[in-house]
Amino acid sequence: MRKEQAMDYMIRAIDKKKTFRLFMVKSTGAVEEARQRHNTTPTVSAALGRTLTAGLMMGYMMKNENDRLTININGGGPVGTILAVASNNGEIKGYAENPAVDLPLKPNGKLDVGGAVGVNGKVTVMMDIGLREPYIGSTDMVTGEIGEDIAMYYWLSEQQNSAVALGVLVDRDYSIKSAGGFILQTLPFIEDEDLDKIENVLNNLKSVSDYFDNDDDVEDIAKKLFADFDMEILDKIPVSFKCDCSEERMERGLISLGKKELKEIIEEDEQIETVCHFCNEKYIFSGDKIKDILKRIE
After folding, report:
1. For strand 282-286 and strand 271-275, is the pairing parallel, antiparallel, or unpaired?
2. What is the pTM of this model?
3. Residues 78-107: pLDDT tens digits?
4. Which CATH architecture is the domain 9-241 placed in?
């Protein structure tokens, strides 16, 4: 039985001088849901959790309900590929290829996310916005810590000056104590004085997850962090880990195997179990069910 999740939500805000726009999310429950579904180690929980947190905000930036954003991170480290898929309505799903990977803590006592993810690879972002071909941007990994890698993606691939702060705090029982983050993007014609103020805030950030390890509203966190600015909250929506897999989708996957392979499954096994990569939900198809699928193909 899963723990009851605290309310997660995300805001979109802007400095009233139009100096920068801000996306901020509390993602504790969503990251905990992912941890439980994939049984991740603390290090992988942090890596996957940061990716999901970034994905929620990046998905929120898209305009239409049917738009989809996919983040693919592979830095060549032992965790392998981390994949997250987000929509603009606050829903996200994702997984890490090797959820059992764990590494010793760094000398400062922090989880070694960068060591698990690696830097010999790329972060790739695909945006499906209803055009004939999706937009795909890819940049080299920088630190493997996820936040810096996403910021570099925005700078090199979209020419957007961004600060990305992501945090996941793992509790002693390996559950997620807190998770959240923000993406700040400067707007054209920002004045040097305001840029200095932003840099001062970023240089004095404490551990990002600490800001969300309490009952503070996300709006209050944003206004406290950027107290030198007059922040206007434009919108807020709930967020959650939610997968859109179904028995029908899995059935379509079986159909794609073709008649020959389905016949072999019937001959060799009484049933087949399929598992969704994104949420670990299992779907069992009996021999009779597979025979029905085969009849429909024929």
Report:
1. antiparallel
2. 0.91
3. 999 999 999 999 999 999 999 999 999 999
4. 3-Layer(bab) Sandwich (3.55)
